[in-house]
Amino acid sequence: MVPFLCNHPRPVRKQRGRRIRGSTALKIAPCVPASEGRCQGCGNRTRTSQGVALSLTQFSRPLLLFLSPPPPSPPFSYLEQARVAWERDRLHQLCLLLLIFSRFAHSTAHNSFKMDVVLEVCDTFLFDYMYQWVLPARPAPSGLTSQTFANGTSMSTWQYKPATEYLYLTPSQAAYGSLWARDNIWRQGVSLFLILWIFGFLVYFVFASLSYLFVFDKKTFEHPKFLKNQIWLEIKQANEAMPIMALCTAPLLVAEVRGYGFLYDTLDEAPWPWWNWFQIPLFLFFTDFGIYWIHRGLHHPWVYKHLHKPHHKWIMPTPFASHAFHPLDGYAQSLPYHIFPFIFPLQKVAYVALFVFINFWTIMIHDGEYIANNPIINGAACHSIHHLAFNYNYGQYFTLWDRIGGSYRAPEQEMFQKEVKMSEEHWKKEVEVMEQIQLEVEGEDDREYEPEMETKKRQ
Ligand SMILES: [Zn+2]
Ligand SMILES: [Zn+2]
């Protein structure tokens, strides 16, 4: 018979016989065969789940176990199995708490405005005219006076309601002149696809160009691992990926603008007054957590070659590499950002501002300018290590999850000394490490590097 594993936290006694309270005093009871549903070790009923302080390590452990290779033989000890079961219970409880919390937050938030701000601005100035031209409204049925359809409003049940109290844009006649009214789901899908694509392209192109012109060190061209025509290849890959990413993301935005998300408008519509500022760190923490695990998953050998390798083509990335992904890779890594407003209330303008910030940050960590060696922030130095050494520093904004997941690699001090960082001696060291890891992760290197002659010509 397989003995039952007790997973109760068990109080430890002090020498004088007084019980110690608090989580430090709790200990996992060892495996004890159960009799009549009670644990012989602590006497409690089996499989209860009484409150125990939850640490981040405990929370991450099941995820680590999921992603780590199978345990060596002999399998886990009973004590280890008990610990895993206990931690899994805590993970379930945390997910449940998160769900209850988000439901409660939502029940107190008002979500009366269904249309998105950006969509309304684009409708007013561009899309109303575009849809009127592409899909004009049908002429008035015979027998009805032209007066009825003088402004076309009777053709559609749609009525203007501002997306935000902060902005009132009176719709022109063109808003009523298309077969697809503004609240038509297909029109919203097409419009949001175009917004994501064009807006994303503009943010990418403007910020990456500025970063390339004013921040990026052009000496990087001489690095032995700089590819032939790299900037052109980066821009090409980013522009091939962006429309497909926009197509995949548009349905999520349609759901959001149709009121399925928890987006709110004015500051007093927040569930609690403090939520208006608390949502920003929570958003960063949530997306960092999501991106870490998705990115780490993308490095799994089964997935890496198919989806994530295109982004790792760039050993020495330029700011234009920031969006140069396989489209599904880019989409997967953007998911936490779009999932957040389906779980937590989020102010609409903050949502747009965070979209710009995320794109800006992604460019910043690819610009090769190592500003400060901050132990908390996952900056350009940390992400450069990711491109050089592959299986380290998967995080986006913070080093927290890399530290918890055991994948953190701190940048060396010499990376912050510009002269040393750009010296041939340092590059040689970098290349040695990179080649060794690259061989392990990818096998034979199929990149085409900048020929030495061309490198010299640039000097
Ligand atoms: Zn990666
Ligand atoms: Zn990158």
Automatic annotation (TrEMBL):
Assigned keywords, A-Z: Membrane, Oxidoreductase, Transmembrane, Transmembrane helix
Pfam families reported in the protein's UniProt record: FA_hydroxylase
EC number, as in UniProt: 1.14.19.20
Principal location: membrane
Cell location: Membrane
Transmembrane segments: 192-216, 274-294, 349-366
Region entry Disordered, spans: 440-459
Domain Fatty acid hydroxylase residue range list: 282-406
Ranges in coiled-coil conformation: none
InterPro entries: Fatty_acid_hydroxylase, Sterol_Desaturase_Related
Keyword Oxidoreductase recorded: yes
GO MF annotations, alphabetized: delta7-sterol 5(6)-desaturase activity
Biased composition (Acidic residues): 441-452
Name of the molecule in the record: C-5 sterol desaturase
Organism of provenance: Podospora pseudopauciseta
